[in-house]
Amino acid sequence: MKPRSIILNDRPDKVAFVYSQAQLARIAELTDLSPKPVGGDAFRSMDVADVEFIFTTWGMVPLTDSEVRRMPKLRAVFHAAGATDAFARPFLRNGVTVVSAWRANAIPVAEFAFSQILLGLKGFFRNNRILRETRRFSAEGAGPGAYGEEVALLGAGAISTRLQEMLARCDVKVTVMPSRPERRTVTLDELFRRAFVISNHLPDRADNKRTITRAHFESMRPGAVFINTGRGGQVDEEAMLDVMAARPDLTALIDVTEPEPPASSSRLYTLPNVCLTGHIAGSWNDEVHRMADWVIADLERCLAGEPMRNLVTESMLLTS
Fold it and tell me: 4-100+285-316 domain in CATH 3.40.50.720?
């Protein structure tokens, strides 16, 4: 008899977005999968005593400890998305394995930042602005290029690690500043003064709030580039915009803001040396199916008695 599984989620649209029909068919092949996603209200009124696996994504229903204990056979929760902080603890406390596709979600962010880093080193964004403004074809504003130049990565998590692997193929000097102060060998101040490209991948923790200040932007080298795919709240945004307005040689490539979306009056939309995208660096469209593939692969390992590769531990969860 196949183990029973359900999709526990309050957002059927998100389930349909992340899990393709072929992927749902594969889960149904391996388990006795309930045909439709189960929302929080339905879950609380149904018999779940024999449920062994839960599948979900963005829109996961947070459960209490007592609700988790209604599923004494539950073995694992498979989250085809990134962060699990909002729901993981009651499962972990009750001995249920939690699997997340957080490493899979890091891949497109790293690819996005990698492309911007190389273009930033080349001076693509600044040169493009100058040509549009002057209507004169020239190499003015070209950057130092990707040979021997320093790139700073803020944060040492999954995205940063992937980026380091990608940048290892280039002739650049990569300096990483871990988010934990006790692990650092270089300061944020030093990196903003030294590196030509600074890419932010700090985790979404309270101690990283407003970490990047006016002084950091003011200290940037002529023509330097700042990339933010971390969190908007980690940057003093108004101070950054003040500096960008005063220094048109600089470039800011911003994918995350606070608030999100920005107010319609924000200078993020209007400053020519600020390139704003709508939080698209993470998994979107075809990329989201990678996350489903990763959790299905761990289901297959689980059923084969093999160790799963994408486990969530208590130490990985945010503490505040």
Answer: yes
